[in-house]
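Order emerges. One example.
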Amino acid sequence: MAARAGGEERFSPSVLGTREHWDAAYDRELQTFQDIGDAGEVWFGEESMTRIIRWLEKQKVPLDSRVLDIGTGNGVLLIELAKYGYTNLTGIDYSPPAIQLSEKIRDKEGMSNIQLKVEDFLAPSAELSGFEICIDKGTFDAISLNPDNAAAKRKQYVRSLCSVLKPEGFFLITSCNWTKEELLSEFREGFEVLEELPTPKFCFGGRIGNSVTALVFQRKKGEVIHLGQMRGDEKSLNFKPDRKPQTFAREEKAKSLPAPFSSS
């Protein structure tokens, strides 16, 4: 996955970017769950779920906010959000076996308020809209490895995100392939970065780095999105972050903090 010159693809194509790979993987996990009740891997580990929930808690995001898990896999993140008290949860995945697995786990946990759908985020249905929070743990990474024109698929991902997320809504992404600076570039159209979340660090050759990147973006209000036409009936959120968003041109420190989220 070495960098390329001249604007070519940054990553080498991989089976990890194909639907066939994930169908086969979740077929195996589904069988394992049916055999021994093991829900399977938590993508990026349990600390990634804790990190997301702590941010939502810190921001006082209302528990009835519409939350979308993009590429939900086994749906374990949604289970944890439901246990915390969130009531309006949706998970999508383009792999039917993944949704079959997540449905079985949901039913076992008794979380009937979680909606699960087989849906390709790169071609979202008209019903998939109006979300206040969108979460991605690894889906953008996988799309970036698709052997069939990954660059175009990344642009379509941003179009889809603009389509499903309300203006001033929040997008939390965790990536093991992209640095903070690269993600800022990928989501520069229509989004501004709000916060970088702490992730595990490692030291190699005397230099300290992060094994994963976790960022919170906010969809800009009232800005024309050149990636695709937006719906004309969108309404902005009625709650605000507790810190001033950073711009891509420069990251300025907030001198004062606005009021936290409210459910009014």
Summary: Confidence is low (pLDDT under 50) at residues 1-8, 227-236, 243-264. DSSP finds seven helices and nine strands in the chain. The two ends are 47 Å apart (CA to CA). The first strand starts at residue 67 and ends at 70.
